[in-house]
Amino acid sequence: MDNLTLRQITEAIEKNKTIGIVTAKNPSVDDMAAALSLYLSLKNAGKDVTIATPENPLVEVSSLVGIDKVQTSLNSAAGDLVVSFPYEEGEIDKVSYTLDNGYLNIVVKAGEKGLSFKDEEVQFTRGAKGVPTLLFTVGVQRLSDVAKLFDVADLKDTMVINIDNEADNQGFGDIVMVYPMLSSLSEQITNLLLAVNLKIDPDTAQNLMYGISDGTNNFQNPKTSALAFEMAGILMRNGAIRVNTSRKEEKNVDPFFKPQQQRQQQQSQQQRQQELQSELKKQENRAQNKDDDDSPPDDWLAPKIYKGSTNF
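RE: above sequence
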């Protein structure tokens, strides 16, 4: 990430208070971990942030912190409520409102012609003001992949930052951060948060560690980048614990308890190593004692002179 891009992103975050984050349909653990971590850090910075994906997330990402904040619509409650119905000249005298037991009543006073529209012709819609002024797309290769979340036409006044590591990305957006050489989106988001001085708390760090582990196949993928190892070390210093995200080995394990199990495994390994070292030391002591017991007398190698009373 060059200095110009960094400065543009920093200024965009400082300038905009309403920020949206979107991922594509059925995001991977890496995709969702990266998006949620960006969401948590921006929330901690006091921003009004909305995170959304076209469909409800799959169970495989359910262990990530903040997953309950993911919506299936980008328009927030801040959008205007618009009440629409057919109108002809002279049908309406005036429009007013009243407050009654916590309800707002919109009163449409009929004119001389009376109101000709039917109840079923009244429509209620949200205005486009719910669309954020800054939008991060994370792991989205083309805007059509998230068209269900918003009308692209509503983004005319929205700054779009495209973050991805897939070569097939179409390169849309005002700022394009598409780096296929990186092995995970989570390492890229970690680097971004550090660059713009956004806080990485333990929950955010753990999400990102899950993401990097998933994106690199537990660091076993030959394409794992140097940045992945570097960011993993920083995340561990910020409270994250390395986890094994192999579904084959842990398919029956509740992901929520993975950090605790990791600590227990490390403690068990250390204990076994200590026991093994202790047993080896005992064997060495026994071997040494045996050597001492079997050693010949001091005069064993000295010349022998026979002394006796036998006569020839």
